[in-house]
Amino acid sequence: MSNYNARVRRGRKTKFLINRFDTKRVRLVVFRSNVNITAQVVKKSEKGDIVLVSCSTLDKALKSKLKGTKVNQAELVGKKLAELAIKQGITEVAFDRSGYKYHGRVEAIASGAREAGLII
After folding, report:
1. 89-104 pLDDT per residue, tens
2. CATH number of the CATH domain containing 17
3. Separation of first and last alpha carbons in the chain
4. Could you report the per-residue pLDDT of 34-61, keeping only the tens digit for each?
5. Band of pLDDT at residue 67, cut at 50, 70 and 90
6. Residue 113 half-sphere exposure, CB side, CA atoms within 13 Å?
7. Which value, in Å, is the radius of gyration of the alpha carbons in the chain?
8. Structurally, how many domains does the chain consist of?
């Protein structure tokens, strides 16, 4: 099994568990590439998932503030996402790390969101 297939398998398992046991919460989904990181708050729907809030290192409003390491940038993305989610009235989310290890940039997004007021 390749690393990609293993990550996708872990991601499916996490999504299944969140949808089965934590139906009231929306998901905070993380996508990580080699250069950028993206986070979205997603709500389950009958026709598919609906993106409520999203934030990325590619956002024009955030790009001027991004300095330092990728971990520092991920923490800023988490804080910005939490601010946008709280404005929408979302206070509790289930953290969907998409099969990535809870380490480095993925952990930084979660800690940034917690610092800004989201309950994970």
Report:
1. 999 999 998 889 999 9
2. 3.30.420.100
3. 31
4. 999 999 999 988 888 899 999 999 988 8
5. confident
6. 33
7. 14
8. 1
Contact 98, 6 (CB under 8 A): no
Identify the helix (H) or strand (E) that includes residue 29: strand 26-32
CA distance 70 to 120: 22
% of the chain at pLDDT higher than 70: 99
Name the pLDDT band for 65 (thresholds 50, 70, 90). confident
Q: For residue 81, which of 108, 49, 56, 111 has the smallest C-alpha distance? A: 56
Q: CA–CA distance from 120 to each of 6, 42, 92, 104, 111 (Å)?
A: 25, 14, 6, 17, 9
Domain that holds residue 58: 3-116
Q: Which amino acid is at 117?
A: G
